[in-house]
Structure formats: C-alpha cells, structure tokens
Design brief:
single chain, mainly beta, four-stranded antiparallel beta sheet
C-alpha cells in the first residue's frame, strides 16, 4: 500500500493486467475497489514491451505527477499524440511497484 494525495489522501496499491492486444493495463485499487485506471490503450502507437501510456486527463488530472512523486511509475521521456486524448506520456512501473 502506498499513500497518494489525489483530490485528498488515498491508500492504494497498483495492479497490472493485459489488454487484449497484450499491452500493459494498470489500475489503482483502494479498499478492494478500483480507484483509477492509470493506463490507456493506444494500439496504433508503438511502445516498449514494459511501457504503458498514462491517462492524464479527466478524473486522472494530477495523478501522473503524484504517481511519479511516490515512485509507483517512471517516465520514459516519450509522449504520443492520441487524437482527441491529447499528448499521453509513456511510463513504466517504478521500483516501488515491483
């Protein structure tokens, strides 16, 4: 469990699974319930096997910065333009998430 501050304090843990195309899907869980879907699947955009695109819009605004701050994810230095979704950062799991 990791404490984050995203519209208030939350105790969360990170879970991963795979989208149907094999890419990493990332969620935050709080008290056994989904708190946030961290990743977004952009099938047409190339990405490394261990990387994922972060949903940094709508209800996830500010979450990227907090997850980077606590070490759950690491920024790869890459962005992808995803149509109406805007510019999405590519990240990978941080040391604390392993």
């Amino acid at each position: 469990m990791v404490r984050i501050d995203h519209f208030g304090p939350h105790e969360v843990h990170l879970t991963t699974s795979r989208y149907t195309n094999g890419r990493i899907a990332v969620q935050l869980i709080e008290n056994g319930e989904p708190y946030a879907t961290v990743s977004v699947n952009v099938p047409e955009a190339p990405i490394g096997d261990d990387d994922f695109f972060v949903k940094n819009y709508s209800e996830n605004e500010g979450l990227l910065e907090e997850l980077l701050h606590v070490g759950l994810i690491e920024f790869t230095g890459r962005f992808v333009e995803a149509g109406g979704l805007g510019s999405l950062p590519a990240c990978r799991l941080g040391v604390i998430a392993h």
